[in-house]
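Can't attach files on this board, so I'm pasting raw text. These are the components:
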Amino acid sequence: MFVARLLVLWLAVLGLAGAVAPARAEAAGCPVATPIAFAGLDWDSGAFLTALDRAILERGYGCTTTTTPGTTVTLEQAVATGDIDVIAEEWAGRSPIWNAAQARGQVIALGPTVTGAQEGIYGPDVLVHGPGAPAAGLTQVGQLADPRYAALFRDPEQPTKGRFLNCPSGWTCERVNSAKLQAYGLADRYVDFRPGSGAAMDAAVVAAMVQHRPVLFYAYSPSTIAGRFHLFRLGEPPYDRGCWDDLANPDGQHRSGCASPPAVISTGLNAQFVAQAPALRALFARISVPADILSGQLAEAAAHQRPTAEQALIFLRANPARWRQWLPADAAARLEQSLQRADGVTSRASSAFPANWQISIRDPVNRWVAALVASSGGSFRHIASGLITLAASIDAVLRAIPWWLIIALFAGLTLFGARRAGPPLIVFAAFLIIGVLGLWDQMLQTLTLMLISALIAVGIGLPLGIGTAKSRFSQAVVPPVLDFMQAMPGFVYLIPALMLLGLGKAPAILAMVIYATPPLIRLTALGIRSADREVIEAATAFGATPWQTLVHVEIPLARDSILAGLNQMIMMALAMVVTASMIGARGLGEEVLNGIQSLDVGKGFEAGLAIVVLAMALDRTSHALVAQRGGRRG
Amino acid sequence: MAEIALTGVSKLYGGNAKTASTLIADGLDKATIFARTGCNVALRDIELTLPPGAITVIMGLSGSGKSTLLRCLIRLIDPTSGAIRFDGEDITRLNLKALRTFRRQHVGMVFQNFALLPHRTVLQNAAFGLTLHGVKRHEAEARGAAWLEKLGLGGYERAYADALSGGMRQRVGLARALACDTDVLLMDEAFSALDPLIRAELQDQLLGLQAELGKTIVFVTHDIHEALRLGAHIVVMRDGRIEQAAPPATLLAAPASDYVARFVAQTGGPAR
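---
Top answer:
Structure tokens for the assembled complex are below.
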């Protein structure tokens, strides 16, 4: 279960962070005095190798260790600057930031930490080798150009094309894969789909595998997915330096494709740290695990929902022969002794809360989600395809309108509502800024998502807000539900949501609706509740029905508050755009994500600025339109 | 013309209403009942007949129950017990739908803080009651405009209520109630929020209109001068009870209790 793994990783990080303090350096064993700072890698094999290294250092050498979470590029940067000492899994040679730091002598890569690593374009093995396999005979990437295969891997958002599940935006592999699509002549037949985050990528693949749907994706080994599922890797022409350099170059020709170079997975270290501790240099140079064994460990951890730290200990206990080759005799002896101790994970924070009072709802939740994903892909996909169709038609309409007409339309509507020059001018300037920044197309995609989620949010938010103001029952029930919606971290429900709804626009709309509706509900309820009692009484005295009172008195009186709610709704929905792109929604959010994941701050800022001005434009337009109704006030 | 008759009307808030009812029957006072039962007696056993076609003023200090009594008349507040008969029909027995019809046919109301709709124009406010009753907008606004004209607000139709002074706003409130063309007009401290001069002006205007219209008007106020000026009939209330119900002359000449006498004393006594 993927969700489980996410949870596991998270718990592992928690557990390890808690373990830092009590794990005191014993005697003189550790070659460095200060705690060793590890990169808190968030993908499965990286987390496992980190846990393995930390267990060896803490138990074999008596060192203290810490981890710091972050994205790959920021962590690589931190190793270069010395804020972090060790990256346990470094794909050296693939990252421009790492290569530059290596050239400056700031970092050193030791290894190979993992042998036999592979990467490429994969599909489920049953598609090719099973009885009645629909893609029997598919062996090479080049064959995918056949429309038969494009139809097999059909993209729900653009059904005339297939979908290739690429790496998240900003990852090095993403650019190379896009170049490969072009080089293999697949760019016109397949949507180059970027899931936005590693978690979303894995969840999408796992959901497809569990639901027995065809899926074409980039994958690598070692990984949980490689260990858990029987995958089929499509053949590519052998690696060739010239071909690869062209693929890796964003401005290359991309005329012919080839396999990626053999993956060199190392342990990345800060150069000064290594100079300080030659003993550790020798250790990291020797630590080495074959990719298939590592994948097996990851799959086992996932199957038993074990924290990676626990799985690392299980691995160490089961494979002493392997690590004896890595450690000098004294450290090996100390590690062996430590492993014989019965405690599970290195050492948990000794919480004062009584252990036998603790209840875990992890397993039931996991079982429920797993059953839901396995059984009811279908009905959820109907909802998803409805949303996708709606999004596609709105998108088509927006795209059919010339850019200047869109600006004129929004500015005109604002002018019609506001009857003042100020707001329409802001709208005009906002759209112009977006166009000038070269983000018009992305803005349209975001606008489509915004319009749909705003429609749904208003449809839910207004009636619920009124209901909350009127009924004691909803007054008791709704606020805690809203707290849940607002405070529950998005990824907790988005990962299962994307497994049910599929990667892309549908879960993105869900995310925006969940986040954007609560302020509208709260402020509508507040407005209705604080409407002047005397005016409502007047309506009643004149024989108004409850509906008349609501429409003619309460809603107009609550207007300012509802307007504030609409404003907050728009802001919240746009704030969610980046999260939405982490689960595969295109648009401005993807640009932000792309920018920050490749440390291109300028690009991220441009897209962020576009989000802000789009928010302002939508706010002014909606405000003008709603505020106009029923005249002015005060 | 509507005759309104109240028999045994009580209103209790919170606490143990059942026990409180028996204590009322025993004649215990408001404070004692509250102390014993936690029950706030807003009205106790009101027996009152409001003469048709005349202005009855209900007078009392805040907390005396005068506004509660007014609201009970059209069940903006439901009495805990008792009967309220309009021309013999007990409105406490009406279901919600029948109650709405009753309010539409019989009652217009004017409020202390005007209770106008800030998002509507003066004309739309004046026509508001009629539009609620389902009268076509065009006709409703024509009738509203006629009343605005009559009350001296001609030319202000397109203005918003917020732009008017208090006196003008209350004229809009009055126009709204009169436009409904009902036989009963309820006025809850209608002039209390206005400056003394404007108040006197509106009092005169109301008297002038009443001479012409002859409606059954129930006017709530805390001001004895206003009560004496407007009322053909004055009901003095205290602690949810009627202290005295009489024409102004009787009230001045023969106050039924010290309490009423103290009120009357403010006016400079009977020899006014």
